[in-house]
């Protein structure tokens, strides 16, 4: 755990070390006389030593220190402000991504004849639930083509595909804000997008063409996608928004 924290903030630690070290070397290598209240103290031995008055060390240290200050003013502060401004928008898209994937599993649990604990279920539990109902007989109304007021009735497979489509849309919206998105978050979002379920979604959009009478064929890929979304949820709550609560915990 400690090593993960260090590696995650390694660049920050190195920057702080460069800033502090260069400042101390400026004091040590300076040709200015030592302040009177340091005389006779332990600090006198620190500031008066073999590199005291060394012009090369002093000039290099000044260069590093000024570069660090310049970076803070020109890069760090504006970037931090930008991240702060974008945080609500990024939060919305990430939360909606997690919520849409959760909705797939939640809806399966709602319509299946084999109920399971949505807070703690196994791949086998989900498989049994998916096998217990006919997705063709579970229909929902959806808005018709853009610009038309009509609603169309589609099967449960289309409902799952619709949830996934919105999740992918939110991931795409999140990626628009690179490089202001946490790199660890980007990695997990890509794992969600590249999960095996993405390849099978087109089948669910046209479930009637396949003749399936249950959802068992897709249960493993749905379980995989859901587990990755849990990893996303845990990472998001730990490193980005500590107030975030996964939808399953709100029930």
What does this protein look like?
It is a single chain. By secondary structure, this protein is mainly alpha-helical. Helix content is 66%, strand content 4%. It has helices at residues 2-8, 10-29, 42-47, 55-111, 123-131, 156-175, 183-193, 196-205, 216-240, and strands at 139-143, 151-155. Strands 1-2 form a two-stranded antiparallel ribbon. The longest helix has 57 residues, at 55-111. It is elongated and about 90 Å long.
Distance between the termini: 30 Å
**Portion in beta strands:** under 5%
Mean pLDDT over all positions: 88
- Main beta sheet strand tally, sense and closure: 2 strands, antiparallel
Spatial strand sequence of the major β-sheet: 1-2
Class based on secondary structure composition and strand pairing = mainly alpha
Annotation, overall tally of beta strands: 2
Shape: elongated
Number of helices: 9
Give helix % range.
55-70%
Low-confidence stretches: none
């Amino acid at each position: 755990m400690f090593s993960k924290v260090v590696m995650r903030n390694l660049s920050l630690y190195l920057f702080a070390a460069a800033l502090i070290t260069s400042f101390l070397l400026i004091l040590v290598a300076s040709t200015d006389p030592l302040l009177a209240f340091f005389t006779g103290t332990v600090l006198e031995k620190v500031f008066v030593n073999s590199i005291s008055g060394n012009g090369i060390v002093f000039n290099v240290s000044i260069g590093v220190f000024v570069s660090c200050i310049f970076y803070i003013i020109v890069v760090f502060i504006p970037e931090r402000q930008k991240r702060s401004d974008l945080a609500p928008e990024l939060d919305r898209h990430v939360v909606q991504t997690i919520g849409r994937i959760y909705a797939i599993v939640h809806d399966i649990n709602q319509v299946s004849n084999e109920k399971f604990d949505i807070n703690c279920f196994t791949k086998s539990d989900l498989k049994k639930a998916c096998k217990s109902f006919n997705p063709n007989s579970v229909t929902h109304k959806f808005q018709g083509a853009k610009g038309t007021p009509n609603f169309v009735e589609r099967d449960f497979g289309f409902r799952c595909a619709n949830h996934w489509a919105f999740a992918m849309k939110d991931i795409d919206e999140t990626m628009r804000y690179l490089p202001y998105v946490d790199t660890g978050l980007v990695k997990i979002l890509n794992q969600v997008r590249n999960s095996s379920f993405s390849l099978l979604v087109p089948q669910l959009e046209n479930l009637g063409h396949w003749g399936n009478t249950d959802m068992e064929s897709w249960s493993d890929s749905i379980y995989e996608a859901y587990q990755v979304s849990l990893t996303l949820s845990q990472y998001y709550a730990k490193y980005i928004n500590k107030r975030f609560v996964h939808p399953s915990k709100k029930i």
